[in-house]
Each structure stands twice: as C-alpha cells, then as structure tokens.
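Worked example 3 (structure in, sequence out).
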C-alpha cells in the first residue's frame, strides 16, 4: 500500500546511480541480512499495509484526516477571541475528549507488530538469534532530539536563554519559525547556528490555511518553500500540526515533524503510533514523541515533568527516538523554564543515547535505509553507498525484539 503522493516534487539528494526504495516495511525497519529477504517476502509485503495503517493515520475516517468545517470556522474567528478565552475553551474541550486509539500518552500497537513480525520471521527461518543494522549510529541505544516551535516575538526573544541551558547539558536543538507571522531577526538565527543549533520552517503563520484545501496548499506551499530556501531551512513542521499525509511529502524539505506518535489533544488529533522515524515518500518523518508543553500545562493542567520523564524512560527502554516539542513562548521563562531544565537534566542521564539534531536524524535514517547487511564467515558485514555510523547488533541486544505490551 504505497503512499499516494510520490516524491516527484522533492529534491532530496540521492546517491549517484541509485534508485532507492524508501520503504516502511518490516524488513526495512529491522534491516536483517539480505539473504533472508526472499524467504520472508510475503510477510514483508503484508507488513507495509499494517505499518502505514498506523503511520499514515489510516485508522481515522477520511473526514478526520483533514480539517473539519468547525476548525476552519475557528481560524476565521481566532483573531477576534482573546487569548485567555481561547485557552480556556481549548482546555475544556481537551479535558472532555475521550479517545481509545491511539492511547495516550503512549501507544504500543505498532511496537507490538514490529516485535511479533520479527519473532515470526525468526521462526520461519528456523533460528533463535540473528543480526540487524542498529537503529542508531555507532551502536547507540536510543536517540534524543530537541525541537521548538517559536510562535511569537516573545518566544523568539527567549531562544538564546533556552539555548544556553541546553548547551550546559550537552544538547543542541532545532527551532521552527513561522515565516510570515512576525519579524525575524536573522542575525540571531545565524548566531545560534554558529553554535550548532538548527532552524526549520513552521509554515507561514497560524491561520489554518496551508492544509485547508488543495487550492490553498498550491498557493501557499511554494511560498513556504521559497522562504525556507532563502534561509537554508531544510526541516518543516506545520503550524498547529495541521497536516495532510499526501501533500506534505510533495514539499521541498528533507524532513517533517508535523505528526506525533500519539496526540489526541491537537486541533487535528491522531498519531502515527511510531517512536521511530519513517518515510513519507522520500521525506523522513520525525514524529514528536513527548507531549507538547502547551498541551500538558495549558490544556490539561498536568505536571509536565512527570509525564515527560515517564514517557522518555519508556522510549529509551525500547531503543526509540525521544523527540520533544517545547515552545519558548510557554517554557522559556519562569516555572516553565525550570521545568524544561528538569527535563534536560533527566535526558542527560539516559545512557548510550545519541543526542542529535533533527536534520542529523533524518540524514541517518535515509543513510541506514540504503545499507545492506550480509553474513560472511559467520560475521556481519555492512555495505552501501555510505556506511558511516552503521553497526551490526545482535537482536538479543535489542529490547524491542523481545518486548510485550505493558
């Protein structure tokens, strides 16, 4: 069940002479030795539909994968409603919302499927152990990536202070900027870039238009892409995470972060059920896997640090990707900043984690997809156009290979 929209409009670099298949099947996820593929082919083909049923939110009715008429009306009236009243109304709706699937704050069904597919594959091959290409470079056990959406001038003014704290704990982060919502001081952007931070495009502004209709998208997407190219922005996250799984991969970006693993509280609720990257056409999708600060503190009135730490530990225990979405507008000062620093302290103590920028994660996931694993004289050998960072790991060392729902 291939993605309907192809990558014909995308311009991501590909190795010379290659014709890569950016697949989300179970074999591509695990990266088992190539000699085992033929025997597993039927289950590999079947796995695509199951994986993308989760990842592409196909469990949702068609009408729920796009903006409702009520949401369109909200954006038309939004600027006339005081911020405190919008937050109060959104909080009331969020706390009254009941969603069975995907479960929140963590959904296990796709992880269960990856484990079960591997177990059945080992049985079919009549083996109890094997090798695969590790999920993360240099044999790291999990991944941590920090991202921010900077929604206002006050949030922009708080970036450097937050960046100082992140650097203190050994992190660098990515900051997504709405390109037509407020004046951007690009000198500050370049100053942070020089220190190793990354910047992405957060659409144009929070008016709900980009994915409102095909006509709006065709009008606005080229403008987003042009402004992003002018400022070297290769990552994208849609304002308010409004999204369309068929249209996003036609945009000229290396990666997207508009999906969550599970988030029933967004204007467009849903989730990919994935705590790992995956492909939207040739674009890499990096779902945010920790709940947003605004969701926890403003909508649900929850203690963010407790929810964050519990989820981060669970993701790390499965070798997945801990990807934050924190707004300097809400968490860049006062109690919010203290809570964010507590999260950084906690993340800094996770052992054998790869601390990476989103652009690095996307580049790695694409590079890993082109690697192949073979067994020669009983030892694993990785080949490919660029095998930097690739490490063969025994399946026995992967917690996800042996997990059960909890």
């Amino acid at each position: 069940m291939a993605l309907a929209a192809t990558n014909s409009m995308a311009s991501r670099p590909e190795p010379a002479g290659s014709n890569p298949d950016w697949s989300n099947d179970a074999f591509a996820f695990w990266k088992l030795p190539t000699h085992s593929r033929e025997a597993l082919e039927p289950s590999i083909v079947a796995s695509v539909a199951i994986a993308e049923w989760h990842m592409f939110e196909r469990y949702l009715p068609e009408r729920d994968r796009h903006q409702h008429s009520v949401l369109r009306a909200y954006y038309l009236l939004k600027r006339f409603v005081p911020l405190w009243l919008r937050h109060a109304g959104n909080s009331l709706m969020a706390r009254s919302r009941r969603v069975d699937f995907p479960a929140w704050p963590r959904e296990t069904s796709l992880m269960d499927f990856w484990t079960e597919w591997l177990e059945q594959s080992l049985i079919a091959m009549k083996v109890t152990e094997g090798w695969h290409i590790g999920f993360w470079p240099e044999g790291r056990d999990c991944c941590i990536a920090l991202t921010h959406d900077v929604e206002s001038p006050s949030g922009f003014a708080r970036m450097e202070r937050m960046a100082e704290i992140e650097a203190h704990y050994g992190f660098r982060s990515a900051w997504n900027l709405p390109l037509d919502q407020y004046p951007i001081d690009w000198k500050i952007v370049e100053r942070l870039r020089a220190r190793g931070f990354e910047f992405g495009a957060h659409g144009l502004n929070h008016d709900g238009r980009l994915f409102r209709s095909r006509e709006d998208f065709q009008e606005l997407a080229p403008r987003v892409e042009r402004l992003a190219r002018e400022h070297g922005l290769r990552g994208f996250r849609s304002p308010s995470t409004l999204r369309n799984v068929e249209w996003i991969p036609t945009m000229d970006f290396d990666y997207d972060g508009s999906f969550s693993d599970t988030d029933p509280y967004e204007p467009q609720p849903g989730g990919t059920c994935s705590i790992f990257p995956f492909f939207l056409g040739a674009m890499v999708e990096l779902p945010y896997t920790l709940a947003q600060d605004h969701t926890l503190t403003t909508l649900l009135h929850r203690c963010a640090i407790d929810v964050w730490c519990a989820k981060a530990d669970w993701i790390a225990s499965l070798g997945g990707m801990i990807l934050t979405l924190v707004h300097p507008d809400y968490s860049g000062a006062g109690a919010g900043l203290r809570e964010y620093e507590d999260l950084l302290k906690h993340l800094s103590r996770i052992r054998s984690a790869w601390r990476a920028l989103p652009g690095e994660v996307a580049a790695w996931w694409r590079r890993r997809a082109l690697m192949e694993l073979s067994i020669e004289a009983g030892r694993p050998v990785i080949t490919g156009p660029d095998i930097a960072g690739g490490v063969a790991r025994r399946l026995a060392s992967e917690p996800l290979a042996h997990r059960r729902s909890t």
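Notes: The chain is about 40% helix and 15% strand. The radius of gyration is 21 Å.
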